[in-house]
Write a structure and sequence with these properties.
Elements: H1 13-16, H2 42-52, E1 57-61, E2 64-67, H3 68-84, E3 92-96, H4 103-112, E4 116-119, H5 126-136, E5 140-144, H6 148-154, E6 162-166, H7 173-186, E7 199-200, H8 201-208, E8 223-229, E9 237-242, H9 243-261, E10 268-271, H10 278-291, E11 294-297, H11 304-312, E12 318-321, H12 323-330, E13 345-348, H13 355-365, E14 370-374, E15 381-384, E16 398-399, E17 404-408, E18 421-426, E19 433-434, H14 438-444, E20 451-459, E21 465-470, E22 475-477, E23 480-482, H15 484-491, E24 497-507, E25 511-520, H16 527-535, E26 546-549, H17 563-573
Parallel strand pairs: 1-11, 3-4, 3-5, 5-6, 6-7, 10-11, 10-12, 12-13, 13-14, 25-26
Antiparallel strand pairs: 1-2, 8-9, 9-19, 14-15, 15-16, 17-18, 18-20, 20-21, 22-23, 24-25
């Protein structure tokens, strides 16, 4: 594995202005570099917050709040239980949960016990779940009961030593009983499941509380997360994020945000993006813990009326989201009934924010959207706009402290300022490599320690970074990566499909949609039939929204499908023009 670190400059703007023009634009109180080891490990960050903010609310779910002390006690019980089960430092623990109260104690409990977290999308199909758990080697799985049937279907292909079934209302006291009752009524349409020998999360807490956890020497070089991504190639693989990588990114984000946010004890962050997504994981779960803020956990942000009802009942000061979420909220009539008077910051990441959405959001709420940029491989934040912007900028802002960027051509040479090239990033937040894939790691790391993002960008003269296009064929649906190879592999499994090509097309709601162009073997094949086949093998956002049948696909002389040519052809036919290429 390869660990990306930065040779950070001193706070000398004149000497760095030629190669790091963004330093001149930094807000006055933001340092140019961070002390990478100051915060220690993620466990150190959590334990310090439990100590320093013991009586502050740490999280709110379904109207119930828990303090940092209560989250800390539950996390200690999780750590103790894992140890009682024979789990050792470095073992992988998979978490397959939406934003429910149990997520934070499980996360921090497993980290405290020295485990490595493998975040799993709860909406994964059995095939996707099997692939990720087997690749990571996770032998322990925490799963919300709503998704137990998926685990049951995958079980024969998995090697799991223990499964913990979590209920939505766990840790919510009497309120939790009502939450579980409502949830289980909704689940009546879902197939029941049997996971013989599994544990309930309630039992885990009861057992774990009998004995304090044994101390574990967690170091900054230990692996904190295997954060799965397709990277630049579309091959699912785990980005190895060490404690030092993620803790550095927490420190970088803190350095950027604290001068603007101040030392208030009453900040509440609306956490609607799923915590298994790297953006919410760092910016919400970890950074808010460091700041002693409270997280308002939204378990199902797709229920926009319910989401807005929750916002109307709470006082919040911070909000994180993606373009799709802001668009859905701003387009709903009831959003004007939400009190945004206490809100000081609305941040966006995960996908490009559309100017029209940002404009609509400010019209409705009076607050601009502040956009940033990052990837799973960079823990994730690499660039961010100043937090005091009055209007949406249309760029992803400036590199964070201790972060270097380089815009390079296909040969790996830097391009002049203002010209397009591949965005490359170097800093302490860059991953250690891809899990058990040194060949894939080598493809994305340059000899001088930069991570090749696969995104096409421009560095403006003042140091702002503007994302223009993508080298990779990845499709970005509402902030989630969809990799054509994976979808194509599923499509061609259908006995009536001969060939398939998948591309992304612009969409006003989700940023892009997945579009499949299929050469059938059998003329009786229908789009509906193929979509049902995909539904059994792919998470919902990966299923092609558009399916078209063709006699042939554009290819190279050696038979490789030309996805970019296909996309340009489709866009031209629809009058949207072709994509610009560097």
């Amino acid at each position: 594995m390869m660990n990306g670190t930065t040779a950070a400059p001193a706070n000398n703007v004149n000497s760095a202005s030629e190669t790091r023009p963004w330093l001149k634009a930094y807000p006055a109180q933001v340092p140019h570099t961070i002390d990478e080891g100051r915060l220690g490990t993620l466990v150190d960050i959590f334990q310090a917050s439990v100590r320093d903010f013991a009586d502050r609310p740490a999280a709110e779910s379904f109207g119930k709040r828990l303090t940092y002390r209560e989250i800390g006690d539950a996390a200690a019980a999780v750590a103790s239980w894992l140890q009682s089960q024979g789990c050792k430092k470095g073992d992988r623990v998979a978490i397959m949960l939406p934003n429910v109260m149990a997520y934070l104690p499980i996360l921090f409990g497993a980290l405290r016990a020295g485990m490595t977290i493998v975040n799993v999308n709860p909406l994964y199909t059995p095939r996707e779940l099997t692939q990720q758990l087997n690749d990571s080697g996770a032998r322990t799985l925490f799963v919300l009961e709503n998704f137990g049937a998926t685990v049951e279907d995958a079980l024969q292909n998995l090697t799991l030593d223990r499964i913990v079934v979590v209920a939505p209302g766990d840790l919510l006291g009497m309120k939790g009983a009502l939450v579980n009752l409502v949830s289980r009524r909704v689940k009546k349409a879902v197939r029941p499941f049997t996971l013989t020998g599994s544990f309930t999360f309630t039992a885990v807490l009861a057992t774990g509380r009998r004995t304090p956890p044994q101390p574990v020497a967690v170091t900054r070089d230990d692996v904190a997360f295997l954060q799965y991504t397709g990277g630049t190639t579309g091959i699912p693989k785990g980005a190895v994020l060490l404690h030092r990588n993620v803790a550095a990114n927490v420190a970088q984000c803190e350095a950027w945000m604290r001068p603007f946010l101040g030392e208030r004890a009453d900040h509440v962050m609306v956490t609607a993006l799923p915590l298994y997504h790297i953006f919410a994981l760092t910016v919400c779960a970890l950074l808010m813990t460091r700041l002693g803020a409270c997280q308002l956990l939204i378990a199902n942000p797709r229920d926009v009326p319910g989401f807005i009802k929750t916002l109307r009942q709470c006082q919040f000061s911070l909000m994180s989201g993606v373009n799709t979420l802001y668009n859905a909220l701003a387009s709903h009539a009831d959003i004007r009934r939400v009190d945004f008077s206490k809100v000081v910051l609305c941040v966006s990441g995960g996908m490009a924010t559309q100017e029209a959405v940002a404009r609509r959001w400010k019209e409705v709420t009076g607050r601009p959207i502040i956009e940033g940029y990052g990837l799973s491989e960079t823990s994730p934040v690499a660039c961010a706009n100043p937090l005091d912007l009055a209007e949406f900028s249309g760029t992803v802002g400036y590199p964070l402290p201790s972060t270097d960027i380089s815009i390079r051509n296909a040969d790996g040479s830097p391009v002049p300022t203002g010209e397009k090239g591949e965005l490359c990033i170097r800093g302490p937040q860059v991953m250690a490599g891809y899990w058990h894939r040194p060949d894939e790691t080598a493809k994305v790391m340059t000899p001088d320690g930069f991570f090749r993002t696969g995104d096409i960008a421009i560095l403006r003269p003042d140091g702002q970074v503007e994302i223009v296009d993508r080298l990779k064929d990845m499709v970005l649906v509402s902030g989630f990566n969809v990799y054509p190879n994976e979808v194509e592999d599923v499509l061609v499994r259908h006995p009536k499909v001969m060939e398939a090509a998948v591309i992304g097309l612009p969409d006003g709601q989700s940023g892009e949609i997945v579009a499949a162009y299929v050469v059938p073997r059998d003329g009786t094949l229908t789009a509906g039939e193929l979509r049902e086949f995909c539904r059994a093998n792919l998470t919902g956002y990966k299923i092609p929204r558009r399916i078209e049948f063709r006699d042939s696909l554009p290819k190279t002389n050696v038979g490789k499908v030309l996805r970019r040519a296909l996309r340009d052809e489709v866009l031209a036919q629809e009058g949207q023009g072709t994509l610009s290429h560097p």
